[in-house]
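To assess whether ligand presence alters the predicted conformation, the chain was also submitted together with zinc ion. Input:
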Amino acid sequence: MGDKPTAAMVLSLIGGIFVILGGAFLAFAGSLIGSFNVTGAASASATVLALGIVGVIMGLIMVVGGFMMYSKPTSTKMWGVIVLILAIISWVTAIGGFFIGFLLGLIGGILALTFKPTMAPGAMPPPMMSSSMPMGSAPMGSMGMTCKNCGASIPAGATRCPSCGASL
Ligand SMILES: [Zn+2]
């Protein structure tokens, strides 16, 4: 899972396309029925055609929803609800997008609803600076030590006077 609802977007897109195809198929079937010279064909044609057009519109909204939930993370849940409802309506009205549109829209909508974006890195507070270490605090106290025997200056840590060799 990234910080984008990719799976929800892809499923909503494909589901929407299938619902569009299902609607277009219905609209085509509706216009075919209208060509039959049978009693009641005209009204049946109009009903199926209208259903098909509604299906195409619903599929288009599902496709838009797929894009929107991806491009605007704040609207992911809202579009998830819309895609979910449209998928269910498409199934109830028998548009369904050959069932695949309904199924993909259903899953895509649920994924968008349950989508949780990962926290952006950088929310962590910066590490504490281990500062206040005084730099260059070399032990200067031992400097200026002098030999008790000859009075020569003795470097720090020496056990014998470098000048006269006296033990310190
Ligand atoms: Zn000395």
